[in-house]
């Protein structure tokens, strides 16, 4: 083997080893980053859930005790999602539904809506949005108390025509300089209450304790909501 061939071979081997090491480092970094992202997402979810259903109001793991839901126009979901079940002594005290407003000013607005057994709203929290800073972003509880206006509302104490912003003849305030954003949120929250009303029996009965000793002990219940 001549000198040139040896040099080329050494270079090829060196490049190959470099590529393998680089690929390994990238894969390891991605794995660590993914784990950190998953942890931060879970942490944020837990914080939002506990804002709506404090620890003294349930005795189960909210993130683990879930009910799978199929796609729903009322919830604004495009794929299957999960509802979180707040329980005490194995009885569902509140259901936390994923709620998406597809028609925000700058795109979709992702929320969670907590509803008590009797259909009364415990509260709403915005998880993700792209609304205008200083205007539409006041739907966040850390920016204003606007979102707190939903607490205590239900289909029984708030008429069908009232589920609009005041500009449209409803009872909910619009935000200064922003009407599209609150309009979308009000509509979505109303949809989540309607979803709960239509599926109340399945949501509560599926989540409540069962006397069937053959029942599964898993915390994640199979989807039964149609």
From TrEMBL:
<keyword id="KW-0249">Electron transport</keyword>
<keyword id="KW-1133">Transmembrane helix</keyword>
<feature type="modified residue" description="FMN phosphoryl threonine">
    <location>
        <position position="179"/>
    </location>
</feature>
<comment type="function">
    <text>Part of a membrane-bound complex that couples electron transfer with translocation of ions across the membrane.</text>
</comment>
<feature type="transmembrane region" description="Helical">
    <location>
        <begin position="12"/>
        <end position="33"/>
    </location>
</feature>
<keyword id="KW-1003">Cell membrane</keyword>
<keyword id="KW-0813">Transport</keyword>
<feature type="domain" description="FMN-binding">
    <location>
        <begin position="104"/>
        <end position="196"/>
    </location>
</feature>
<dbReference type="GO" id="GO:0005886">
    <property type="term" value="C:plasma membrane"/>
</dbReference>
<feature type="compositionally biased region" description="Polar residues">
    <location>
        <begin position="215"/>
        <end position="226"/>
    </location>
</feature>
<keyword id="KW-1278">Translocase</keyword>
<dbReference type="GO" id="GO:0009055">
    <property type="term" value="F:electron transfer activity"/>
</dbReference>
<keyword id="KW-0288">FMN</keyword>
<dbReference type="GO" id="GO:0010181">
    <property type="term" value="F:FMN binding"/>
</dbReference>
<comment type="subunit">
    <text>The complex is composed of six subunits: RnfA, RnfB, RnfC, RnfD, RnfE and RnfG.</text>
</comment>
<dbReference type="InterPro" id="IPR010209">
    <property type="entry name" value="Ion_transpt_RnfG/RsxG"/>
</dbReference>
<keyword id="KW-0997">Cell inner membrane</keyword>
<feature type="region of interest" description="Disordered">
    <location>
        <begin position="207"/>
        <end position="226"/>
    </location>
</feature>
<keyword id="KW-0597">Phosphoprotein</keyword>
<comment type="similarity">
    <text>Belongs to the RnfG family.</text>
</comment>
<keyword id="KW-0812">Transmembrane</keyword>
<dbReference type="Pfam" id="PF04205">
    <property type="entry name" value="FMN_bind"/>
</dbReference>
<keyword id="KW-0472">Membrane</keyword>
<dbReference type="GO" id="GO:0022900">
    <property type="term" value="P:electron transport chain"/>
</dbReference>
<dbReference type="InterPro" id="IPR007329">
    <property type="entry name" value="FMN-bd"/>
</dbReference>
<protein>
    <recommendedName>
        <fullName>Ion-translocating oxidoreductase complex subunit G</fullName>
        <ecNumber>7.-.-.-</ecNumber>
    </recommendedName>
</protein>
<keyword id="KW-0285">Flavoprotein</keyword>
């Amino acid at each position: 083997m001549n000198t040139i061939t040896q040099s080329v071979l050494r270079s090829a081997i060196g490049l190959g080893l470099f590529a393998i090491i680089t690929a390994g480092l990238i894969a390891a970094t991605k794995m660590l980053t993914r784990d950190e992202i998953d942890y931060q997402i879970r942490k944020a979810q837990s914080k939002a859930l506990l804002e709506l259903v404090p620890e003294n109001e349930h005795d189960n793991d909210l993130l683990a005790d879930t009910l799978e839901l199929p796609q729903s126009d009322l919830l604004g979901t495009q794929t299957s999602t999960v509802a979180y079940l707040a329980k005490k002594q194995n009885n569902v005290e509140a259901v936390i539904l994923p709620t998406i407003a597809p028609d925000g000013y700058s795109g979709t607005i992702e929320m969670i809506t907590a509803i008590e057994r009797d259909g009364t709203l415990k509260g709403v929290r915005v998880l993700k949005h792209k609304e205008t800073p200083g205007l539409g972003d006041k739907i966040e509880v850390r920016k204003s108390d606007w979102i707190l206006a939903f607490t205590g509302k239900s289909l029984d104490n708030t008429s069908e025509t009232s589920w609009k912003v005041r500009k449209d003849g409803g009872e909910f305030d619009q935000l200064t300089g922003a009407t599209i954003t609150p309009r979308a949120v009000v509509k979505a929250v109303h949809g989540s209450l309607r979803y709960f009303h239509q599926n109340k029996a399945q949501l509560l009965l599926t989540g409540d304790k069962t006397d069937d000793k053959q029942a599964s002990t898993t915390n994640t219940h199979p989807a039964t909501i149609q």
